[in-house]
Amino acid sequence: MDDQRFEQLERKRDSEGLSDEEADELGRMMAERAGKPYANAEDRPSLQDEPVAWEEEAKREEEAGYLPPKGAAEDPAP
């Protein structure tokens, strides 16, 4: 790894900020130093692609024929 470049990017990060490309480069270097794999935000799956637990529960209740009114208790009194 280029220690001089690493130090240059750290100084720039702390002063004026980094471009996306520079931040990615610094992140890769930091991960390499720590001996860990690196992934940036573009490498991670979008949170919008994964269903949210409450959406799944609402769908199950709807399919079961029961959807409580908003603000109502989960289990209606008989």
Total beta strands: 0
The residue fraction in helices comes out at 40-55%
Structural class label: mainly alpha
Element order: H for helix, E for strand: HHH
**What is the overall pLDDT average?**
80
Low-pLDDT regions? none
Strand content: under 5%
Backbone CA Rg: 23 Å
Shape: elongated
Largest sheet, in brief, is: none
How far the N terminus sits from the C terminus, by CA atoms, comes to 69 Å
The helix count comes to: 3
Fold and architecture overview:
The protein contains three helices and no strands. The termini are far apart. With 78 residues, the chain is mostly helical.
Keywords:
mainly alpha, 78 residues
Task: Give the arrangement of secondary structure elements.
Blueprint: H1 3-15, H2 20-34, H3 53-63
Helix pairs in contact: 1-2
Question: Can I get a quick summary?
Answer:
The chain has 78 residues and is mainly alpha-helical. The protein is 50% helix and 0% strand.
